[in-house]
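User: My advisor asked me to double-check a structure prediction for YvrJ family protein before group meeting. I don't want to rely on an old file, so could you generate it fresh from this sequence?
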Amino acid sequence: MEQTILTAISAVGFPIVVTFYLLTRFQRSMDNLTDKIGELIKELQRH
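Assistant: Sure, here is a fresh prediction for YvrJ family protein from the sequence you gave:
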């Protein structure tokens, strides 16, 4: 894992690797939020 990260940093640069990491984390958070909103909508429709 560390070797892959170091290879990516040397190939494309540190700022790009950090940006990719943050966007990936953000996407997971957005997916989680979308799921929770869907659950909330279903719960509100039941009432």
